[in-house]
Design goal:
By secondary structure, this protein is mainly α. The chain has two domains: 2-80; 107-237, Up-down Bundle (CREB-binding Protein, Chain A), CATH 1.20.1020. The chain has eleven helices and no strands.
């Protein structure tokens, strides 16, 4: 049947034999579709009103574009149906752009998750203490397990921040990240008066003095971080 399946598909469409047409489509979808014939099948599926088959062909073309574009079927389509070739190329570009956008959003989401986890760890260190760092009124052990994945890295950052000689905004790169994290925390914290994170209240008071543009930028960042976590207010920043 493979040698005649395309002929049968056309005939079943022309003479309106639906059960034979479905059989041909199913065979093409499951067994007979290849890199070499996908362009021919794609064109025929469009002519024969076989939307499912045309969609499967289109996906195969996009997934194997380099190989398909070197096939004889593509060369023939380029000569006989340049408009269709243009549409396929445009859909290929759109698919690439969509893929890049999906990748960008995934990476962006990872960054927001990392920021949230870093702020969780910051609150944990300042409020409860962890391993070798924390408030002086807390009793903690160096070998105690910690449930916050970002805690170890943040512990190193806090130690650097405490000892750095260039600890000014815009100076040391590590300290700059720490300043940004402290300000980000203050914008999410719901209890600045009772918060044990350094400078939380100070940053809250500074908000009114910032430019409108900067304020909008911070609000967007906070909104995206909380949306990534699927919450309205971060529970670790509420009064306890």
């Amino acid at each position: 049947m493979e040698a005649y399946v395309l002929h049968l598909l056309v005939l079943s469409h022309v003479f309106m034999v639906p059960h034979l047409k479905r059989e041909c489509e199913q065979n093409l979808e499951s067994s007979f579709l290849t890199i070499d014939n996908v362009i021919d099948v794609f064109q025929i599926s469009l002519l024969c009103d076989a939307p499912r088959l045309s969609l499967i062909c289109h996906r195969m073309i996009l997934s194997n574009f380099k190989a398909v574009s070197e096939s004889e079927g593509w060369k023939a389509m380029k000569e006989s149906h340049p408009v269709l070739e243009k549409e396929v190329l445009e859909s290929m570009i759109e698919e690439e752009n969509n893929k890049k956008e999906r990748t960008r959003k995934i990476n962006e989401r990872k960054i927001y998750m990392q920021l949230y986890e870093a702020m969780e760890a910051l609150v944990h260190i300042c409020r409860d203490g962890c391993r070798t760092i924390g408030p002086c009124d807390k009793d903690f052990k160096a070998n105690q397990p910690c449930k916050y994945a970002a805690c170890k890295g943040l512990e190193l950052l806090v130690r650097h921040f405490a000892a750095c000689k260039l600890r000014v905004p815009g100076g040391c790169g590590h300290c700059k990240r720490m300043w940004q994290l402290l300000e980000l925390h203050s914008r999410i914290c719901s209890d600045p008066d009772g918060c044990r994170v350094p400078l939380c209240r100070n940053f809250k008071q500074r908000i009114s003095k910032q430019s409108k543009k900067e304020e909008i930028r911070w609000k967007i960042l906070v909104k995206k971080i909380l949306r990534t976590r699927g919450i309205g207010i971060a529970p670790c920043f509420q009064q306890q």
